[in-house]
Amino acid sequence: MDVASGSGASHKTAYYELADDELAAGSTLGGPLACATIKATGAVERFYSIEAGQEFFGSVLLHHWDGRTGVQLEPRTGSFIIHPEHQQHVFTLANDVAVHEDIFVLSGQPGDDGSVDPPALYYAVELRNDTQEPLTVSTFAFCQLRGDTAHDVLTTFSKRLNAFIAWNNSKKDYVRLFGCSVPVRSFETTSDHAKAVSEHCPQALSGKTDVAGGDPLAVLELSHDLKPGKAAKFTLLLSFSVRGKKDALRTYRSCPPADEALARTQEYYRDVLGRSIVVTPDPEVNRGVLWAKANMLRVQLKAPTGWAFTNDPGHSNNSVARDTAWFAYGADYLTPEFSRASLLAYVKRQEKSGEIIEYYDIRNGKAADYGLNINDNTPLLVLALWHHYNTTGDKDFLREVYPAAAKAARYILSQRNEQGLVWCTATGTSDFGIIGWRNVIQDYRLSGATTEVNSECYAALLTASQMARVLEKHEESAKFKQSAEQLRTDINTHLSNPSNGLYYLNITVEGVPRSDVTADLVFPVMFGVASSDKAALIIGRLSARDFWTEAGIRTVPRSAPYYSPGPKPAYGLLGGVWVAMSFWYAFAAAPFVPDFMAYALSVSFRHYSRDPKRNNTVPGQFSEWLHGETLVNEGMMLSPWFPPRYLWAAIEGAAGLDTSTGSLSVNPRLAPDWKWCAVQNLPYCGQRLTWFVARAPDMQMYANFHSPRESVPHEIFEQDISDKIHAGGEHIVFLGLRQDNHMIFFAGNTSDRTTSAALRVDAAFSGSYRVRVFDSLLGSWHDRGLLPGSAMEGGIAMRLERKGFWLVDLQQEL
Q: Which has the closest alpha carbon to 15: 95, 84, 93?
């Protein structure tokens, strides 16, 4: 497998290329109104309507036959090229015709009025004759028009649109279109699925669309005469509406041509992926950050109830509160407007008591919970609201949500027991008896006082205090702070396990402490409940061999008597690898063992591209949970709330950004073998922040912002000029800052080999500049004398050690 990425810390193109027999499944791609999945073969598996909450199309696939002999043209082994926003398939037919397929879902920049692109799936195809003889290729496109709707689909064919029009007889507003960009030779709907696998070319299609049974297979025939060296292009287009035929036709006609649609989608992805760029000496972490952002864009939906995402793209209609809260921790650095809207949906649906609901149906807003008197959703939403305010500086938002946050905090306080602990009275099991994130374990209860939820509640109460302080509600602020500190004391009094120095998993509803050692120990570290000494002890235990695999941390150590690595009854939650737990660990471990932090971020993401056919993963795509022994993915192919946690762990863990107190600070946590780390174009309170940190020879930071709480020596520059810098070399990342006549350039090497490069500035500079260079291999600054400004356009030659860097400091001579 080849992995490629462009140069520079500005937006880079990234892709995975692998043989087309190396996948167990293809990409999951999405737009605001639709979601598509691709098969391991490269064919479309399904196309899902967000508004209906159903599949409107099943499989879409192409087969080719020799137009003269009728012999089936078997494809030879080719390549898949997986991009953030589309998936390509390149292969050659048995007659040496080269085929290039490209599948994507239209997803451009939302309009200022909130408008979004129509639901549209493009299947673009090019056939090219690379032989010296003229060839004829007969291509048949097959499409299952029913999806998973009722077995009552009726169809017609519009010659004007060159497309099938299909609808459900029981829901006539459910209308979809399947068409082609070029005139077809013949068409029909049929129940004869054997045509798709025939060894001999099907006969001309009947033109009939009245197949009985309500489950039609639509078929289009195309024929292309290809002269040597010539190519033919066509595109299959799928679209739909839940508002009847007239709207479906309008929607289909509004879909732009394939080239324009792909350009629009790529432009949007370029813009968003160019935000919050994190680069380190580890290319796997860099790719993880980039693909985390791409995965997030794929699942951000414009539902009938507003912006949201579901916990299982293309299968579920439910938005879950805890998932939404954690998604906001990443989306605040990527698409804060989405974060705001999705959080406000839960503020709007807060229960009268102050508790936050478990989930709601994004189609109709119907809310539900599991009858728990307290849950993790309640404190997590409070924390996410505060995080959004801190990263956006939107005080109107804070004023709007504070009443809900305060109400939630008071509700938390009302659910304490005589020990002062937040107490869940549930005596059920699974969803109805598990209070925290692991709520799908069958026949399992985790209620009473859990360390997880109590830790979250402590942080939520402290957050409510900070919210009140900002809004000058000082009496409320003091009360919430006092309550928070008391809860922290009570947690450390009653949930601390004196036998091993760790914490109990919980105190059961029967009052029995459970000493189970699980990955949930990360929560009192993450949320500031544990003292520094105790946090270090916890991180040490979680770093032990029995917790770890080469794909991330297990939920339960392999040595535990209750270790269960597989699907039932625990779905990997008692010993499998829930990959996002590694991201929680990375954040918590960063101040204590930054080397293990870097390891966790690297191996957990790399596993997605390591033998994807065996591991049932898709390169670059964050799947859900892995069997604790085989490390095969047993869960969703794309888990929506995992990618934002990766982005958050990289920014607030590795890169060290901290906004939790309401002011900005940066304390980078470089792994011992990391000599540098950089962040560029991070949205923060109406600004775009850029900083890079290098061991030069001690830790030194350069940034385009000032903060009074920096713990690392730093220099402040006014302007990020990274977009004017270019550096040759595949593995080189680069940044630049400027303050008047003073500039600092950074170039970092992500390769395991020494690399040569030339740093060139794409701008005109007058006068002369005194140049100093820090080469990480030499470990000291060296004066390079005066350099004419014009020379910078020609480039500064560099030779960077493996994983090393150069700093080039230029001061204009006045």
A: 84
Do you find a cis peptide bond into 569, omega within 30 degrees of 0?
yes
Nearest-CA neighbor of 44 among 27, 56, 61?
61
The band of 796, judged by pLDDT with boundaries at 50, 70 and 90, is confident
pLDDT in tens, 310-358: 989 989 999 999 999 999 999 999 999 999 999 999 999 999 999 999 9
What's the whole-model pTM score? 0.96
Cα Rg of the chain (Å, integer): 28
Distances (CA, A) of 112 to 30, 337, 387, 498, 639: 20, 11, 25, 57, 29
Confidence (pLDDT) at 282: 96
Return d(Cα 680, Cα 722) in angstroms, integer: 9
Least Cα distance to 802 among 783, 779, 777 occurs for: 777
Nearest C-alpha neighbor of 574 from the set 563, 586, 590, 584:
563
Residue 275 confidence class, pLDDT cut points 50, 70, 90: very high
Task: List, for residues 122-139, the tens digit of each pLDDT value.
Answer: 999 999 999 999 999 999
Residues β-bridged to residue 424: 448
Helix/strand/coil for 245: helix
DSSP-derived secondary structure letter, 646 = H
Q: What is the mean pLDDT of residues 767-771?
A: 88
Q: What are 592's two structure tokens?
A: 């204590």
Q: Is 15 helix (H, G, I), strand (E, B) or coil?
A: strand
Half-sphere exposure of 643 (CA within 13 A, CB side): 30
The two three-digit tokens of residue 172, written as one number: 């006539």
Cα(596)–Cα(671) distance, integer angstroms: 8
- Three-class HEC string of 348-410: HCCCCCCCCCCEEECCCCCEECCCCCCCCHHHHHHHHHHHHHHHHCCHHHHHHHHHHHHHHHH
Query: CA quadruple 349, 352, 357, 360: dihedral positive or negative?
Result: negative
Hunting for tokens 């939906």 — which residue is that?
Answer: 301
3-state secondary structure 12-25: CCEEEEEECCCCCC
For the chain, the maximum distance between any two Cα atoms, rounded to a whole number of angstroms, is 87
> Which H or E run contains 282?
none
- For residues 135 and 231, what is the distance between their CA atoms, to the nearest angstrom? 11
Residue 80 banded pLDDT, cuts 50, 70, 90:
very high
- Backbone φ, ψ for residue 742 (5° rounding): -120, 130
Q: What stretch of H or E contains 680?
A: strand 676-684
